[in-house]
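User: My notes are a mess, but here's the protein and 2-acetamido-2-deoxy-beta-D-glucopyranose's SMILES. Can you give me a structure?
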Amino acid sequence: MLPFASCLPGSLLLWALLLLLLGAASPQDSEEPDSYTECTDGYEWDPDSQHCRDVNECLTIPEACKGEMKCINHYGGYLCLPRSAAVINDLHGEGPPPPVPPAEYPNPCLPGYEPDEQERCVDVDECAQALHDCRPSQECHNLPGSYQCTCPDGYRKIGPECVDIDECRYRYCQHRCVNLPGSFRCQCEPGFQLGPNNRSCVDVNECDMGAPCEQRCFNSYGTFLCRCHQGYELHRDGFSCNDIDECSYSSYLCQYRCVNEPGRFSCHCPQGYQLLATRLCQDIDECESGAHQCSEAQTCVNFHGGYRCVDTNRCVEPYVQVSDNRCLCPASNPLCREQPSSIVHRYMSITSERSVPADVFQIQATSVYPGAYNAFQIRAGNSQGDFYIRQINNVSAMLVLARPVTGPREYVLDLEMVTMNSLMSYRASSVLRLTVFVGAYTF
Ligand SMILES: *[C@@H]1O[C@H](CO)[C@@H](O)[C@H](O)[C@H]1NC(C)=O
Ligand SMILES: *[C@@H]1O[C@H](CO)[C@@H](O)[C@H](O)[C@H]1NC(C)=O
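Assistant: No problem, the inputs look usable. Here's the predicted complex:
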């Protein structure tokens, strides 16, 4: 596009075009080898410079332009323009010709427009035709008759270039901001996620999103916590739950045996016992509960951990039974002269490992004669001296366990009471046959 073309009236323009066509010469012509001395129309050979030189037709052709027109020399030709036309470019350039694009036609349209095939002026898309001078960092926008270089979104013009705006400097994000070419992105700390506005961070309920808690999950601000059911403890990994072995913590949890179970424990008792208040073991009184196998002719005797069926009639000749527990040796029977006059059967039960000395059984004279004196002794069944008698007064005495004994074990002690009356020179003996069951346990 020639800067002055728009100043030409239509008819003149055509003429000028013709002239240009006739005189058109490519600047390459002047680059021909030295030996080539013929020049195209409008140029002449200059032997000094060894180049084809433009002929200034305005000087060489008399009356090159007629009337009110002025002559403007041009490479390879000349133009006739109205005298009023402003000539911006100095077309009389001396020296080597500038690299003018070949086959330039004067454009009859306004700047930024060009004629189409029907010679209508249409907008030139400078952006599409790379006729713009936008920087690579800029975007070219075609406009009617011109174009615009703008910065893409997220860029700002600094000097000639578009520079990325660091949006992160403006605190757009609640947690973290990542600047990107032309934009930015907000990020959230772990445990949070971007809110609907993509800037604020909202707590993530990890419990609803499959947090790996084995048992219980509690969401909290920014994180979550795993917890375990009672009887479990959180593993070091923070997620899984380990059964607590309650039994290993204390030997006092259960009186007899502690059995650990997932999440809990239970106490067990040996046979013959029942669980009392979750940890204690209580002897089952089979005689009372009816859970015994004793016959009609037997008496059920309960002891710690079991029971015993004893014959109700335990009297052995020459003794005769006078009541359930009592056997009497009739004085009329000569065999009874050296024997205790009566034998009374009694049963008792003690636990193992009792602290000693321990009073275990009190013997009491049933009939008291005035002036009588009663003496007590262990007559049989105490060969190891595990028991002794402590006389309380002349009608009663205490059987004392002298040594700790461990069951299951059974003693049959004959406790003799000798009654003496010095005034009447009377001496009588009776025996309490005490069976002592020692249970296997301390309870
Ligand atoms: C947030 O970002 C998403 C994905 O990038 C987008 O689809 C959505 O329109 C954005 N929302 C807002 C409010 O900018
Ligand atoms: C106990 O024996 C004494 C004699 O040693 C006697 O004086 C006393 O009365 C007796 N007491 C009883 C309660 O029998």
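The helical segments are 10-23, 57-60, 246-249, 286-289.
User: Great, I'll file this with my notes.
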